[in-house]
Amino acid sequence: MNLQKLSDALDRHPSQCSSFAGRNPTKNIGEKLARHIEQKLSLPSNYLDDIRNAGIHTQENSPVYHLEDASVLHPVGHMLPVIGMATAGALKEAFEEADIEEYVPAPGPCSNRAFVLILDGISMLPDFNPRDRIVIDPEAEWMSGDVVYARCTQNNSGTFKEIRYEDGNYYLCAKNPKWEPQYMKMDDTWEVVGKGLYLVKVL
Question: Tens digits of per-residue pLDDT, 24-34?
Answer without folding.
Answer: 777 778 778 88
